[in-house]
Amino acid sequence: IYGGIVARLTYLEAYNRGLQSAVEKILPEFRASQQVLMQRDDMLERQKILERLDARRSTSVMILDDVARALPSEAYLTRLEEDGDKFRLEGKALNNGAIAKLFESLVKSERLSALALEEIRLQEGESLAPYAFLIVGSVKLSVMADNAMTDRARE
Q1: Contact 82, 67 (CB under 8 A)
Q2: What is the pLDDT of residues 55-71, one digit of tens each?
Q3: Is residue 146 a contact partner of residue 55, using CB atoms and an 8 Å limit?
Q4: Do residues 120 and 99 make contact, with C-beta atoms less than 8 angstroms apart?
Q5: What is the rounded CA–CA span in Å between residue 96 and residue 15?
Q6: DSSP 8-state symbol, 73
Q7: Residue 91 · residue 133 · CB < 8 Å
Q8: Contact assessment for residue 67 and residue 57, using Cβ atoms and an 8 Å cutoff
Q9: Helices in the chain by DSSP H: which ranges?
Q10: Low-confidence ranges of the chain (pLDDT < 50)
């Protein structure tokens, strides 16, 4: 019995050494593949950032176009802010109707959402454009960029 146990133990030790040798042979390749996977993930993350920046750039131009088309001749802008997430528009107008017309046109924009006419105030002593207004909202990034980012997230 003792001889059988020793023989079995010797066999298992040899088998274990063989496994350890095989693991040591493939360990560098495994580590290299892990490194490549980490680099791939980093590159995908960078790609998402670049796609978002590209979407912001083109969306900004389209928002400016929408604002220019919506702006009635009875109103002018004093400030326009857009950071890819939020939108803020300040200006002055001859009357409330011009402000309403601007707001109604901007609400139809595919690139803006959750718009709110936050403030209209009559400025005493201002005869040229007595009404000041403030419109705020959110920016919707380009639909194509959103789809590309969604497709990448699925991978």
Answers
A1: no
A2: 777 788 889 999 999 99
A3: yes
A4: yes
A5: 88
A6: T
A7: yes
A8: no
A9: 2-70, 96-107, 143-154
A10: 143-149, 152-154
Asked if residue 94 lies in contact with residue 80, where contact means CB atoms within 8 angstroms, the answer is: no
pLDDT for 106 equals 96
Residue 33 CB-half CA count within 13 A: 5
Please tell me the pTM assigned to this model: 0.61
Token readout for 133 is 């207004």
- Nearest alpha-carbon partner for 141 in 110, 104, 117: 110
Widest Cα–Cα separation across the chain: 113
**Amino acid, res. 60:** S
Token pair 């066999």: residue:
11
Q: Please, which residues have CB within 8 angstroms of residue 122's CB and are 6 or more apart in sequence?
A: 130, 131
**Comparing C-alpha atoms, which of 106, 109, 154, 108 is closest to residue 134?**
106
Predicted confidence at residue 118, as pLDDT, reads: 95
CA pair distance 137, 60, nearest whole angstrom: 14
Q: What is the CA radius of gyration of the chain?
A: 32
DSSP state of 108: T
